[in-house]
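Folding Problem: From Residues to Backbone Shape
Fields: amino acid sequence; protein backbone structure tokens
RECORD BEGINS BELOW THIS LINE
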Amino acid sequence: MVAKMDAAATTVSVKLAQLRPTQLRVGYEAVDAKRSTWRALSAGEKRRFLESHPFPAVYGPGAQYFLIDGHHMALALLRERVELVSVRQIEDLSGLGAHQFFVALGKRGLICSSGAPQTLAELPRALQDLADDPYRSLIARLRRDCGCPKDPTPFAEFRWADFLRTHIKFDLHRSDPALAIKAAKRLIRDAWCKDPCAECRCTEEAVS
């Protein structure tokens, strides 16, 4: 069992290496950016961050916690040798079988559709097994560059990444990151952000 908790508990301490992902990929570049931010924190700041940022997860088959958000931060912390994190259990579905559990997560919108996983067995068994998606890193760079807050919709940034995947060639993303960002700004703004939030800096730029 990953962790014991009584019926009244809402958060538990869980070994980071035992969290199960609900997506196939992350952007490694985005993970590295979070690692750099983490390293710049003092010991006290790191402790307060961990205390105030529990990872949301569903308790599932095999007494495992399935992470439903924060995969990039979780992998960054794992690579920084953080062992324990707080997990906020949003639902207990541990009584379901693997197939029923996967279907239940899908119905709740808690499985990332990017990469089209069809069964629970197709999801990585551990955070370190997550594959790299450079387009997800492109979205992370776009958010940092534009100053846009995180979209609270589950896996929204992967929908953006899949959209860019069909419009921006991989070679451009690798050979000319600045041009790729410029193209991504126009595409995302025209397709998704026709009414930008107040924090967005894209509206200040003339994207040609």
User: Anything to note?
Assistant: The longest strand covers residues 84-92. Residues 27 and 132 are 5 Å apart (CA to CA).
